[in-house]
Design goal:
The chain has about 110 residues and is mainly beta. The protein contains two helices and eight strands, in the order E-E-E-E-E-E-E-H-H-E.
Length: about 110
């Protein structure tokens, strides 16, 4: 490439996946190639932007979807967490595999994963 980073600060698409959780999509184009970057945004409050945010990269996990290990998507749980933990509402959802969002929210931060 030419060493220049994309400059767009508004996502190309926003998709709400559950209350107070949105997927933000940026289409990064260079010549004939397009890569879509997806970020999960979970604000601490629905009606305001926090004064601080945490950008968290949870690594590259697979999920368990109906008993099959595959790419993470809605309805799946983290590969390293059992269905019992997921069902109790303790986190470990397909978008927060390390269960960090509640902790960062408790500290007053919006979260980008």
């Amino acid at each position: 490439g030419n060493g220049i980073l994309p400059t767009g600060n508004n996502p190309d698409k926003i998709q709400e996946i559950q209350k107070q959780v949105k997927l933000l999509f940026w289409n990064l184009r260079h010549h004939e190639r397009t890569v879509t970057s997806t970020v999960v945004y979970a604000p601490v409050r629905e009606d305001a932007v926090a004064r601080s945010a945490v950008l968290y990269h949870q690594g590259h996990h697979d999920c368990v979807c109906k008993g099959i290990v595959r790419k993470c998507r809605p309805g799946c749980s983290g590969k390293y967490w059992d269905e019992k933990a997921s069902g109790r509402g303790t986190g470990f959802t397909w978008w927060d595999l390390d269960n960090v969002t509640r902790y960062f929210h408790h500290l007053g931060h919006d979260v980008f994963i």
